[in-house]
Amino acid sequence: MEGTIAEAYLRQRRIDCALSETLRFHPECWHPSGRRLPALVARVDGLPRVAVHRTYLRPDGCGKAAVDPARAMLGTTIGGAVRLTDAPGGRLVVAEGIETALSLACGLLADHATICVAKLWLPEGVPRRLTIAADGDDAGRAAARRLAERASALGWSVDILPAPIGRDWNDIIMLRRPAG
């Protein structure tokens, strides 16, 4: 991904840590509209079949493409996750989006395992301690509560780390770190 539009997109979002091997760049990724656009592509793990998460990008990498949808899944992703870091001995940290999870991995929770999930996936071989990084909106907080209830019922120790109202954790990194 080094030197690609996808890397430029993540760096302008103030994500300055090493990027996971699960992330790739595709210069002409198929979009549901039939167009081919540059995209950040992420492998979704923990599934019986291949699935990917796509974020369509502007040609210069300065933001998401002006298309609907700007993000799309390919394949069934229920029960899978995009694993972004792997810090042994830490908590499992889940977040709603790739940018949010990478923001946590780049400083806010740098010593933790961080995973971006679509639905609950509790991988083997990690401590049964879970932190849910909830977005600061009603939908994000409700999803965090549902995930916490499900994980608790399975015996996990759960904490919720709510972002401030109207924000996500990438917004917080962008406020704290200067551009460039």
TrEMBL record:
DUF7146 domain ranges (all copies): 2-84
Q: Which residues form the Toprim domain?
A: 92-175
Transmembrane annotation, as ranges: none
Pfam families in the record: DUF7146 (PF23639), Toprim_3 (PF13362)
| Coiled coil start-end | none
Q: What is this protein called?
A: Toprim domain-containing protein
Q: What species was this sequence derived from?
A: Amaricoccus macauensis
